[in-house]
Amino acid sequence: MKIFLDGAWVDSAEAKISVFDHGLLYGDGVFEGIRLYGGNVFRLDQHLERLEYSAKAILLELPWSRKEISDAVCETCRLNNLTDAYIRLVVTRGVGDLGLSPWLCKKPSIFIIADKIALYPAKYYSEGLEIVTVPTRRVNPAALSPAIKSLNYLNNILAKIEARQFGALEAIMLNDQGFVAECTGDNIFIVHKGRIITPAAQQGALKGITRDAVFDIARRLGIAVEEHDLTRYDVWNADEVFLTGTGAEVIPVVKLDGRQIGSGKPGAVFGRVLEAFRKAVLTDGTRL
Ligand code: PMP
Questions:
Q1: Domain stops at, among 115, 136, 156
Q2: Helices (H), the chain
Q3: Distance, CA 64 to ligand 1 centroid (Å)?
Q4: In the annotation, is 255 catalytic?
Q5: Do 129 and 108 reside in the same domain of the chain?
Q6: Number of domains, the chain
Q7: Whose C-alpha lies nearest to ligand 1, atom 7?
Q8: Pick from 67, 111, 74: nearest CA to 89
Q9: Among protein residues, the one whose CA lies closest to atom 3 of ligand 1
Q10: Residue of the nearest CA to atom 10 in ligand 1?
Q11: Do residue 133 and residue 109 come from a single domain?
Q12: Which atom of ligand 1 is nearest to the CA of 184?
């Protein structure tokens, strides 16, 4: 497997970064998870725009243009003969000393890995996921904006561990006011009386690329989409619930904390969105 690392493609065994890289020492860096479907890098431009926003938010100047990164992403897929893959694009603050100071890190590092991804087992797409609400709250945006896709994922990892301890694969994270923010690695949507509703990013959700795609798909299908504050009460009373994410794609949820949602089966609105999503991923983006 060829990995793109700081301007060149190297074998995975040679793809190494320094132990003094602040991406490793402090989680100081940003990243994107991207999908390649049938030779189409799904919404690559949107991913690169989010990467730029994340980098700007942590005052990390990207020394590469969007075109250069885009070309490197595509070339990494081509070199590995991939037509369907999960792509991990990482930018670290670079090598510094043992202190926090990012200004001592003179050169950011970039690497791109293109590989397969283990999705949720297929049966959950037809039967639906059972998720839980975990005690770990989403980090307060005043402390660290959840819109920044940074290398510091401990908040989500702690929630993911709790989900597993409760026997679930995914979990709702509430924000510090008790509103539904998102899941540990996915955005959440409810369907109520024919309308699709998701928490606003300000409630502590990442502005998911799949979330945006679902907005566009729903509008095309003539289904109203809204961003609203949601509590668990709204989830309990939803007709349908589904999650979105680059890895998860669009996946239905049929139980929360042991409570059945709607009919207990993946709903009709979810089905229409998923069908349109499966088509969109093949054309909406950048061809290799
Ligand atoms: N929320 C979090 C915390 C995430 O890490 C992700 C990405 N896996 C998402 C939502 C979904 O975003 P996207 O659709 O861009 O993958």
A1: 115
A2: 22-26, 44-57, 66-79, 123-127, 154-165, 209-220, 232-236, 268-280
A3: 24
A4: no
A5: no
A6: 2
A7: 185
A8: 111
A9: 185
A10: 186
A11: no
A12: 3
Domain that holds residue 77: 2-115
The CATH number of residue 262's host domain is 3.20.10.10
Q: Are residues 264 and 169 in the same domain?
A: yes
Which one of the listed residues 56, 149, 207, 279 is annotated catalytic?
Answer: 149
Element of type H or E holding 41: strand 40-42
Residue nearest to atom 6 of ligand 1 (CA): 185
Ligand 1 site-directed mutation target among 246, 277, 281, 284, most atoms within 8 Å of CB: 246
- Say if residue 102 is in the same domain as residue 135: no
- Using an 8 Å Cβ cutoff, are 128 and 253 in contact? yes
What CATH number is attached to the domain comprising 109? 3.30.470.10
Query: Residues enclosing ligand 1, CB less than 6 A?
Result: 33, 156, 182, 185-187, 206, 208-211, 244-247
- Tokens standing for 107? 């050169």
Domain finish residue from 82, 115, 148: 115
> Which string of DSSP letters, residue by residue, matches 126-151?
HH-EEEEE-SSPPPPTTTS-TTS-BS
- Which pLDDT tens digits describe the chain residue by residue (288 residues)? 999 999 999 999 999 999 999 999 999 999 999 999 999 999 999 999 999 999 999 999 999 999 999 999 999 999 999 999 999 999 999 999 999 999 999 999 999 999 988 778 899 999 999 999 999 999 999 999 999 999 999 999 999 999 999 999 999 999 999 999 999 999 999 999 999 999 999 999 999 999 999 999 999 999 999 999 999 999 999 999 999 999 999 999 999 999 999 999 999 999 999 999 999 999 999 999
CB neighbours of 281 closer than 8 A, spacing ≥ 6? 35, 37, 38, 40, 42, 249
